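ok so heres the complex, two chains, lmk if somethin looks off
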Amino acid sequence: MENKNTYWQENLRLILICLVIWFVVSFGFGILLVDVLNEFRLGGYKLGFWFAQQGSIYAFLGLIFWYSKKMNDLDKKYNVE
Amino acid sequence: MDELKFYTYIAVFGTFGLYFAIAIWARAGSTSEFYAAGGGITPLQNGMAIGADWMSAASFISMAGLIAFLGYGGSVFLMGWTGGYVLLAMCLAPYMRKHGKFTVPEFVGDRFYSKTARIVTIICLIVASVTYIIGQMKGVGVAFSRFLEVEYDTGLYIGMGVVFFYAVLGGMKGITYTQIAQYVVLITAYTIPAVFISFQLTGNPIPQLGLGSTLADGSGVYLLDRLDLVVTDLGFKEYTVSKMGGTLNMFAYTLSLMIGTAGLPHVIMRFFTVPSVKAARASAGYALIFIALLYTVAPAVGAMARYNLMNTIEPSAGQNLDYEQRPQWFKDWEKTGLLEFSDKNGDGKIQYTADATTNEMVKVDRDIMVLANPSIANLPNWVIALVAAGGLAAALSTAAGLLLAISSSISHDLLKGILTPDMTEKTELLTGRIVMSVSILFAGYLGLNPPGFAAGTVALAFGLAASSIFPALMMGIFSRSMNDKGAIAGMCAGLGVTMLYVFQHKGIMFIPGTSFLGDMPADWFLGISPNAFGAVGAIVNFSVAFIVLKMTQPAPQVIRDLVDNFRSPHGEIAEAHDH
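and the predicted structre for the whole thing:
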C-alpha cells in the first residue's frame, strides 16, 4: 500500500511538471504573452506566432514521449509492470 | 473523359478497392474484436488509426482554409486539437485502459457505481457523435460532387455503402486496419501539394520551414512579412497578429477544444484496443506524431493559399487581374457558387478588399482553399486527384470511428449493460452490427436532409464532451472519494450551462429567431463565444460536483479500491473482453 502511494505521488509529480510546460508553451507563449514574444523572431516567424502555430505542437509531442519514458522507468522501479 | 477526371476515378476507386480488401481480410469474429479489435493493436498501428479517426473532413478540408482567413486567430484550432492528446496520454488513457472495459459509458458507470451516470454518458456520447457524423456525411457528398461531378446524393450513397461494408463487417478490427490505410492516403494527399507549393514560393520543400523562409522571387522578403503587407494594404487585418475575439476568448476556445478532444468518446475508445497500459501511453504519442504531420503543415497551406489567392487577383499593387483573364480554377469554382465575383465599379478588373462596399470578391468560401490550392498553384492533375481521395479518406475514416462509438454505446451499454444483461455474445455481436447498420442509414438520412442547425452543432459536440464527459473522467481517476451524486450533478450542471449558453446565443435547438440574446460579440459573457464556452461548463461541472460531494457520503471503500487498482499498471491487466 505504502509503495502504491509513493508510485502514485511520483506519477502526479510528473504529470504536474508536464502540464505546467504544456500550459506555458500553448496558453502562455501562444496566447497570453504572444505580443511580447512577437518582438522576437525565428527566421521569418514572429516568435509568439511560431509558438501558436508550430512550437506548441512540437512541445506537446516531446512531453508525451518524455512522460511515457519516465513512467516506464517508474513502472520498473516500483515493479508494477 | 478528361485527364483530371480519369486520374480522380483511379485515385478514388483504387483507394476504395484497398479498403474493401482490408475489410474482407480483417473480419471481426467476436465482440472483443468488434469493439476493441481484440486488444491486440500495436501502439504504432493504433497511433495511425487514431490519426485517421481524429482527422475528419473538417481537419482535412476546412482547417487550413479557416487559418488562411483568420491568420494568427486560427491558432486556436492548431493548439486546441493537438493539446488534448497531452491530457489523454497522462490523465485518462492509461488508467481507463487498465480498467479494461470496452466503452466510455461503461467506465463511468463502474467508477460511479451508477446506471444513471452511465445513461447520462450514453446520451452525451450519442448526441456528440451524431452531430459529428452529419459533417462527415456532407463531406463525402461534397467531395464526390465536386471531383467526380456526380450528384451529391449519389456520392453520399456510395460513401454509405463503403462504410457499411467495412465497418459492419469488421467492427473495430476492420475499422482500425482500414484507418491505417486511410491515414496513409490522407497524409500523402495533404503533404504533396504543400511540398510543391512551399518549394514554388520559397525554394524550401519542407512546408514547416518554408512558412518561415524568404520568398523565392529574389526580393529577400520573408513570406509572412509580405503576406502581412499585402493583406493590410487591402484593409484586412494583419495576418500574423489578428486575434479571434479577445485574448480571453482565444484562451477559452483553445481550452474547450483541448478538453473536448480529450473527452470525445470515439477517440478515447481507441485506447482500449492496445495490449497494455504502457502501450496506451505510447499510442497517444504516436497518434500525435501522425496528427502533427498534418497540423504543422496546415498553417503553411493556409498562409500560402492566402498569399497565392491575393497574388493571383492583384499580382502587384494596383495591377488588378482582368476578370476576362481569370484562370481556369477561378471559373471552375464559380460554377459551384463557392466563389463569386461582382464587378461593382464596372472596370472589368477584380478588386478584393476588406471594405464591403468596394470588395468585388463577394464570396470566397473558406472550404475551397485546400481543394483549390493545387490548381491555384498550377500543380499537375494527378496531385488534384490525390486531394479528392484524401478528402474522402478523412471523412470516411472519421465516420466509421463515430459509428462504432454509437453502436457500441447502444448495443453494449444500453442493451447488454442495462436493458437485457443476459444477452449472449453472439446475439450482442449481431445486435452491434444491426445497430451500426441503422446508424449508417440514420447518418445518411441526416446527410441528405441536413437539419438547419448542422453548422452550429460541431460546437455542441465539443461543448458536450468538454463540459460533461471530460470532468467526469478526470474526477473519477484523480479523486478517490468522488461519489455518484457529485458526478451526476456535475455532469448535468456543466452540460446545462453550456447548452443554455449555446442556445441563448444561437437559438433553441439552433432554430433561427429563438435566440433570446443576440449572437454578437457584444452580447457574449466576457467576450467568450458560444464555441468556446465548454471550458466554462467544465469549471461549473467540477465546482458543482465537489460541492455535492461535501454534502453527501463519499464513494465506498470498494470503489476506492477500484481506483487504486486502475491507477497502477500492476496486476491483472484486464483483457478488453469478457468480464
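quick notes: Chain A touches chain B through 44 residues (CB under 8 Å). thats all i got rn
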